[in-house]
Specification:
mainly alpha; Serine Threonine Protein Phosphatase 5, Tetratricopeptide repeat; 8 helices; elongated
């Protein structure tokens, strides 16, 4: 009688099946480990992307906050400079008004609003000694360049500047452009100046361009308009008390 086979020698023994099961478990464990590592890697990448986007968002938000702060500061500075300037103009202190604008422009040389007001003063001031057609053209053009020539009030100022310089052809050209760009509310004043330029007459005013609100202007102009309606038509002249009201930049 032969001796029984050892389990390790018997192909049908339990030992062989146990070996295959162990290999399968090892493979599954390896797969789980690899998947876990991939998930960790992917999770890390996603986390990194999220953090990067969040950081970029925070930077953009900070930049927007700074820009808003700068804009608010600029508006406040414009208002302060404008109040000082108009105070001098209303009192007929034109030299001091000009000095006020020059001082403000030294602080903010790229401010279209300030350039426009200086151009308007140099072009339309009642004081002959203060007017400067070439200077008015320079500052009026600068204001328009800074606003891409889309602000009708600034284009209106350029027209007044050319009229002061004696170039009425250019004055008519830019006044017509201002009318095309402008709001219908201001059409009467804009066309009045156009008629002056076509008659080779400059515009004289002294008041700052387009600064009151529409409501303030309506209240201020109502009695004047009633007087004009009830009176006989008058010839156009270079003097005008109409306000020159603007859109801000």
């Amino acid at each position: 009688m032969s001796m029984p086979h050892n389990f390790s020698d018997d192909p049908n023994s339990f030992g062989g099946s146990q070996g295959k099961s162990s290999n399968t478990k090892a493979i599954l464990v390896a797969i789980v480990i690899v998947c876990s590592m991939m998930m960790l890697i992917c999770g890390g990448v996603i986390f990194g992307v999220v953090m990067s986007v969040r950081k970029q968002f925070e930077v953009i938000q900070q930049q927007l906050d700074e820009e808003m702060g700068d804009q608010q500061s600029e508006v406040a500075a414009n208002r302060s400079a404008y109040d000082e300037y108009t105070g001098f103009v209303e009192e007929g202190r034109y030299n001091e008004a000009l000095e006020s604008l020059n001082s403000a422009l030294e602080t903010d040389p790229e401010n279209a609003f300030l350039h426009n007001n200086k151009a308007w003063l140099l072009a339309t001031c009642p004081d002959d000694a203060l007017r400067d057609g070439a200077g008015a053209i320079e500052h009026g053009t600068k204001a328009c360049d800074l606003t891409n020539w889309r602000n009708f009030a600034y284009v209106d100022t350029v027209a007044a500047a050319y009229a002061e310089a004696g170039d009425f052809e250019s004055a008519v050209k830019w006044q017509e452009e201002a009318i095309d760009l402008g709001d219908s509310y201001y059409a009467q004043d804009l066309r009045r100046r156009l008629r002056l330029y076509k008659a080779n007459k400059p515009y004289r005013e002294g008041a700052p361009p387009f600064t009151k609100t529409i409501e303030e202007d309506v209240a201020a102009q109502q009695p004047h308009r009633e007087t004009e309606t009830s009176s006989a038509p008058a010839n156009e002249s270079e003097e005008s008390s109409s306000s020159h009201q603007p859109s801000n930049e």
